[in-house]
Amino acid sequence: MTSQLFRPLALDGLQLPNRIVIAPMCQYSAEDGSATDWHLIHLGNLALSGAGLLIIEATAVEPEGRISPDDLGLWSDENERALGRVLDAVRRHSDMPIGIQLGHAGRKASIHSPWNGSRQRPLDDRGWQTLAPSALPMNPNDRPPLPLDADGLKRVREAFVASAKRAARLGLQMVEIHCAHGYLLHQFLSPLANRRDDAYGGALENRLRFPLDIYEAVRDAVPTEIPVGVRVSGTDWVEGGWEIEQTIAFAQALKARGVSFVHVSSGGLSPEQKIPLGPGYQVPLARAVKAATALPVIAVGLITEYEHAEAIVAGGDADMVGLARGILYDPRWPWHAAAHLGASVKAPKQYLRSQPRQLKELFES
């Protein structure tokens, strides 16, 4: 039987050759927001993997929106030129569709890279004043963030629009808005981080308002053939926090506004989270969003086995499967999945000689 994981999929005007998505993964290797040779090596490698879609890491829409001072950004002409150089090189050797995730870290900004402890940076050590819906720090010892006022909300919205237009100019084929993992837009959604008493806080309708404003502004800013989707955390894994019922309400509001897909993750907002880690632990969240909305959905999180990925798509839990750390560990995961599931996958001509003798139809001709 034909593998469901390797069936093509259309996202608006974008045609994906299969359902394997390389999820955004921060590299903490940019210089003043600009892509470096590391990004050329990293993205070039992944673009040869045979996946259906590659999404570039969380890319800040303004300097204060970076998670760390070494994060990728797309707020300046210099950033745009640097990423353009990388994309030009990658595209010479791969026609894999490439998208980008645009985000703002909010109160989780201004930290050290993971290999240096992920602690908040002091202001005198490449740190900066963080921003948030409310003056509630992520961790008790962090500096309180500055609540965004009306001018700040407008500036952030305009920054998302400007970055989205830069992405379109670069020929990126999809835009994902980061509303997950405890970053700024997720902070507006969750009652654990949003204690505002204006039109952007309190009732669910108000907490949805700013993320929906951002979605609408980005959707209007890029050509209609470019899919615009949203990454969400299906739950905070904390009592009294954001939960799947609210996620579904958010997804339904996005659907009414024409969203192209929803990428369902979880957690990241509170150090109090208690996550039941295990293979596919987030798949039930994706399934719930899919069942309630019929939107195209990406499931992600500890999906490492080929049969598991196949079952997620074949069973209708999600339309696509996202790989992150697993594909860093095994950049040829799609090749191996195709071999295991009796499918075929695209490979660069320079590597065609590596096709195993017993798998004569593994590589597409």
Describe this structure in words.
The protein has 10 helices and 12 strands. Helix 5 (204-221) crosses helix 6 (244-256) and helix 6 packs across helix 7 (283-293). The strands form 3 sheets. It has an 8-stranded parallel β-barrel with strand order 3-4-5-8-9-10-11-12, surrounded by 4 helices. A two-stranded antiparallel ribbon has the order 1-2. It is of the alpha/beta class and 365 residues long. It has helices at residues 37-46, 77-91, 150-169, 184-189, 204-221, 244-256, 283-293, 306-314, 325-329, 333-341, and strands at 9-11, 14-16, 20-22, 53-60, 98-103, 131-132, 146-147, 175-179, 228-233, 262-265, 297-300, 320-323.
Summarize the structure.
Helices cover 32% and strands 14% of the residues. With 365 residues, it is α/β, with parallel strands linked by helices.
